[in-house]
Amino acid sequence: MPTLTARTKPRTRRSMELLAERPDGLHFSELWKLVVAELPLADEDMERLKSGDTKGENAWKWQTSDLVMAGWLRKNNGYWRITALGREALEEHPDAEAFYGAARSAYAYWEAHRHGFAYAQTLLGVIPAGRRLDLDALAAETRLDRGPLARWLWGARPKGAQWVVDGSGDAAPEVRADDTEKAELFAEIQDWQRLAEETVRPIELRELQELLARENERVPHAPSAWLLHGYLAHDPDLVRTWITQGFCSLNAALIGPVDESVSPEELRVRVEHGYRSVPASRREELASALLAFLSHMHPGDLVCALSDGRFHLGTVTGSAEYESGVLRRTVNWMDVRIDYNDLPEEVQGRFASQHDIVDMTSLLNDLLRLAPSAHPEDASRAEEPEPETVGRTGNELPAVDPSLADKLLVTEEWLTEVRDLLQDRQQLIFHGPPGTGKTFLAQHIAEHLAGDPRAVKLVQFHPSYAYEDFFEGFRPVITKSEAAGAGTLAFDLRPGPFRKLVDLAEADPSTPYFLIIDEINRANLAKVFGELYFVLEYRNRPVDLQYSGEFHLPRNVFIIGTMNTADRSIALVDAAMRRRFAFVALHPDEEPTDGMLARWIDEQTKDAKIVPTEDVAALHRELNRRIEDKDFRIGPSYLMRPSVYAPGGLERVWRTSILPLLEEHHYGDDSVNVQSRYGLAALRRAVSRGDA
Question: What was the pLDDT predicted at 82?
Fold first, then answer.
């Protein structure tokens, strides 16, 4: 059977034929109806996606994006229209396969030069109205071939594209524009001339770059910290030279002269061109390192390095300067020469990174503690936080408040033990039967220790939960900008709830952050955590992620899981996960759950919120005495609601909540009559006789 892509190719070509019959274009929804009327979807294409589209329509929209890149199709506010270049393509490629292949080659060029196109789009975005930019100058600056650039501008029409013209002042000949298209292209320019009473003047790239630099001016920033390895120079004595001569540096010989005004897009284009013989993944790392050195590092930031097994610390004092293929910043290196083995464990771990520059800002307070205290007059440390701020750390959990134990109806000793386990292990799991308050306790303990409910996030696992849902993954998105064309599909790397929490924790190292994973054993844990297993155990070491490079788990992130042992046995948790979590049992006949119902009833009765007419706690104890399997006993929370103590409330909760659980437990076991064994009448008789 043909693949989805193969089935979509004829629909893509037929769409263009239908648009060729309609000079004014069509809304894509109307066009899709016409296409599927002639080329119906196969059964495999009818599956609905989260977006509401079928697989067939989704694939069709994706393939038409290639036509935009080729300049054959215009998309504007949902309306699609074929270009003169697209009409030529229909004549040149009468076969659907060849037609698709030609369009795909345009996308392949865009994919291979995406940084160049991104830089072009950034430059176009700052072109002032009434200024025209020469196409050849743009192609030379972005290092793109003129033809693909002209066709992309013609199809995608990013902001400012109307101001890019051929040297003759006309539309580029590569787009084969007819008179109608040329009239549309220049209509906005003519309208501007009429309103402004001024002619359109050319603009040089230098002016555009100055405009872009002013637009990208940095806002005031907090002090940061950086680790520099010096890998780019491949010089074993480089760090020693930094220390003796008072600077730090990066090799930038292959990108040419740059300064702090360079945009990220321009820098990536320079790296793509200068290091084209280097693998793409390495080029991305080089671009990130150079961008950090040029744009993210500032005077007043801390820098550290390692030389001959000794740790060195300094403060950046100057701007980035390019000289003889090297980027340099002056540094005031302090009198710090600490043996690597004497460094805090978290700082040691960052030196395992293989990146040229590592952001150490989350460890800023740890680095400040390593700075000599004998230089308070050092002006370069004017940005140092106040002493009380330096002492605050989210790694250290506060002591438990006795009032919390009273509120949760647990003992202070038990609560202190949970706090100590979290401080020591940083990950723990509450496990036990349903109704034992696992999630309730997890939420309240986390909010109390964090000191801020906004620092607590809850997720619930289920069988279809995956790494991409939990941490990060590529997700399809429909772009709405003019640059990509309305309705164009793309894939973005989207963070999951755990990644978002980690980002918050890194930006706020003085606060403990908690992730609560409800029903943690309902997912395939190895599939969900992936390589994150490593950082759960080794917080001080980085690990390479599937999608986004190196990652470390901050010390101020804590995880509390809940596990329903009646839903799935704790025995199914693999050894790797057991080793990384502390396990705290919550069973109805063990502290702190044992006696919790009686304590709750006493509290509610004192406040006159309920008026018990029988000993519900005794009924609960008798019920659990009759359940032989410890993991299926019933927790007290089913009976810790005021509605249970209203007329008929106890019978209702027994009939609708408790007995169904036990019927499921004994399903297929004809030797047990659930009603006669666990029914409320039988339990009342036993309690009244004193059997309990």
Answer: 94
CA-CA distances (angstroms) from residue 541 to 346, 352, 533, 544? 8, 7, 12, 10
**Phi and psi of 598, rounded to 5°?**
-65, -40
Q: Map tokens 């100055």 to a residue.
A: 210
Instruction: Assess contact for 307 and 240: CB atoms under 8 A.
Output: yes
Looking at residue 297, the DSSP 8-state letter turns out to be -
Task: State both tokens at 500.
Answer: 């978002």
For 480-505, write each residue's pLDDT tens digit: 544 444 556 667 788 899 998 998 88
Instruction: Please provide the DSSP assignment of 416-428 as one string.
Output: HHHHHHHHHHSEE
Q: How far is residue 316's CA from residue 562's CA, in Å, rounded to a whole number?
A: 46
User: What b/e string do you get for 416-437 counting C-beta neighbours within 10 Å, with b at 16 or more?
Assistant: eebbebbeebbbbbbbbbbbbb
226 CB contacts (<8 Å, ≥6 apart)? Answer: 292, 297, 301, 302, 303, 304, 357, 358, 359, 360
Is residue 556 within 8 A of residue 452, CB to CB? The reply is: no
Chain-centre distance of CA 446, in angstroms? 22
Model pLDDT for residues 386-438, shown as the tens digit of each residue: 434 344 567 889 999 888 999 899 999 999 999 999 999 999 999 999 899 99
The whole-angstrom distance between residue 5's C-alpha and the CA centroid of its chain comes to: 29
pTM of the prediction? 0.60
Q: Mapping DSSP to helix (H, G, I), strand (E, B) and coil, where does residue 257 land?
A: coil
Q: Is the dihedral of CA 41, 42, 47, 51 positive or negative?
A: negative
d(CA 442, CA 518): 9
Contact residues for 31 (Cβ-Cβ < 8 A; gap 6+): 15, 18, 19, 80
> In degrees rounded to 5, what are phi and psi of residue 542?
-85, 160
For residue 617, give the nearest of 632, 643, 591, 638 by alpha carbon. Answer: 638
Say if CB 20 and CB 90 are below 8 A apart. Answer: yes
Token pair recorded at residue 331: 């540094």
237's tokens? 């004595």
3-class secondary-structure state, position 268? helix
Q: What is the pLDDT of residues 101-138, one digit of tens each?
A: 999 999 889 888 888 898 898 888 888 888 889 999 99
